[in-house]
Amino acid sequence: MKDKIAFLVPTRGRPSNVGALALAWDEMIGAGFADLIFIVDGDHPEEHDYVRKSNGHQVYFQPWRGLSATLNTQALHFAERYQYVGFMGDDHRPRTKYFDQKLIIDLDYAGPYAVLYGPDGQPGWTAANQDSYAVDALTSHAPMTWWAMASRLIRLLGQMVPWPLSHTCVDDYVWQLGYQAHKLWYSPSVLMEHLHPLWGKGSMDESYERSSEHNNRLADHKKWETYQEVQLPRDVRLIRSALNKT
Q1: Three-state DSSP class for 40?
Q2: Could you give the domains of the chain?
């Protein structure tokens, strides 16, 4: 198993984003402690564009599954090959030099079953807002739009995010899972900028419109409410039990 992070990037309808992310990644990465892995989700007509613009990074193609099923399917696969598995969108860009070295040090220090995230450039949030590593406060926490977690955690739960969710609340789950298990860490020195149109950093497209459509968001929120009541406490107990055995 590689002592590295496999960063999964699901993408659909955005080969140009793949090229921009690959270039930013190559400019900022240090000693190669992280691999960039694009998962093209059911966009077969443009397959050659993704490969051409990936700058030599790994590209995998699959039938359309949506965000949660894509992350879970691929995270379970890469959790057998990498010490850590991460997620970022194709609209994220690494802005910190040697980010891979910083993240691998933080993850190794955080220990087994840890979840780690950092700033994404959302307006109003800087390192000054939250500069501690171990997250021990429920209020005023920085938003989570990218993360990395121990592969042991993925294998233990059989998922990276809840299978029933489609998109909207997956980050809420990952944050709450790490926080409630006392294994949530924030790395203030690693910026992965999120170029989201809601913040004036990108343009709206079909993928954004699909994920933000009212009925989809409402359905996800209802599923998340149920998951918090029924399954999340069980997931947390599994982690705490595993920690007691280490």
Answers
A1: strand
A2: 2-245 (3.90.550.10)
Q: Could you write out the DSSP letters of every residue in 157-189?
A: HT-SS-TT--STTHHHHHHHHHHHTT-EEE-TT
The token pair that represents 163 in the structure block: 């299978």
pLDDT score, position 214: 46
**Predicted TM-score (pTM) of this structure:** 0.91
- Which among 104, 110, 102 is positioned nearest to 83, based on CA atoms? 104
Q: Kindly tell me if the per-residue pLDDT of 222 is higher than 70.
A: yes
Q: What is the pLDDT of residues 192-206, one digit of tens each?
A: 999 967 667 756 656
pLDDT above 50 for 83: yes
Q: Which of 37, 65, 242 is nearest to 150 (CA)?
A: 242
What's the number of CA atoms in the CB half-sphere (13 Å) around residue 189? 11
Q: d(Cα 47, Cα 61) in Å, to the nearest integer?
A: 8
With beta carbons less than 8 A apart as the criterion, state whether 216 and 172 touch: no
**CA distance between the termini of the chain:** 19
pLDDT tens string 13-66? 888 899 999 999 999 999 999 999 999 988 677 788 999 999 999 999 999 888
Three-state DSSP state, 92: strand
